[in-house]
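Progress against Task 2.4 (sequence-to-structure conversion) is shown through the following example record, which the project officer requested during the mid-term review.
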Amino acid sequence: MNRNDIKKREISNRIQIDRDKCISCLGCMSACIVAHEGHSPRNRVVISTNKKSSPIFCRHCDLPECTYTCMSGALSIDKETGFVLYNCEQCGSCFMCVMACPYGVLRPDRLDEKVSKCDMCIETKEKTPQCVARCPMGAITLEKETVL
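Structure tokens generated for the chain above:
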């Protein structure tokens, strides 16, 4: 897929962060690890320069650089949801997507040497991001958004 193929679409839900509510409990990371059976968390929490907690998640970008650099086609945009999906079976483990992500979200998974990328927990029983469901402070929410 190239940039010219992308048309206006509604992303059914995007993860939003209220940094004022985050207390760096790492519950979102723990929930992600549990939801993905011990694999690397697809998110992380960092402390910003002004000492604020900053959870970092895949943004399922409007124009996702990861999909443009993926030589194997393992990363694609779901036309229905707008999510950037990852097919680990198709992945060649070149990690070009990791290098291309402007937010530093994509990383190698420590268990299977593939890419660790947010899948919005669509494969879990609850079918909702577990980081959102398990955040005790309500700092992580889902919001509808239209892009492009």
